[in-house]
Amino acid sequence: GMIGRVKSRETRMAGEIGALNQGRADALSGTSSGVSSGTSLGMSSGMSAEDETENVIPDWIKDMDELDVSAGIMNCGSAEGFMSVLATFASTISNKADEIQGYYDAEDWKNYTVKVHALKSSARIMGAGKLSGMAAALEAAGDAGEVNVIRRDTGELLELFRSYGSLLARLSEPEEDLPAASRARIDDAYAAMGEFAGDMDYDLMLMVLDSMKEYSLPDEDRERFARIRTALSKLDWDAIKQELT
Description:
The protein has helices at 2-29, 37-40, 49-56, 59-62, 69-76, 79-105, 109-126, 129-144, 147-167, 169-172, 183-198, 202-211, 219-233, 237-244. It is mainly α. Helix 6 packs across helix 9 (147-167), helix 11 (183-198) packs antiparallel against helix 12 and helix 11 (183-198) runs antiparallel to helix 14.
């Protein structure tokens, strides 16, 4: 199974990681063991931040009035980080909008407020200022028990929120026709990650996640992998273990 495959790759990687760590240590101490200290810290020479952004973020996203891309990149730390967060956001819009609608219909204002708070934060990180502002106003209304404001403005919030679903639809279309992952392969990946998460092994977790990029996944699994990847980027091992139990 995958654990066996990963283990054999692991011994191979251990050597590479050892060399990498040595290079990193040398770079930090200013010495050099055949690695020029400028490049060993991952700085690719001759590539400015602008070039990187050009390559990573498609023009149709840069041209969207509904997103402040430069704020998004700043909040996410890099152009790649921004694109990853944006893709996760896009893939969960319809579920999250349904949740807010569900709590609204049930008049469960406590959970409604929790969900609009989360939307406020994720919209802000992505640079969706108007959406974040509307969610913030509704969170405040929820905290203050102003049900009349919630009833007046929730329809507009959800309409705006769902409009990002169609604006960003191209993100969730796979770039090329990837082969579908078998259920066994997906379960194998979860089992392997369960083991590696127990050891808090970042490199092997990432290797499993990256290996699954070569397949198309059912929506539910794709979103779960995206949540695991997000949690891994924050080293939130508790959240990862929750996803895997």
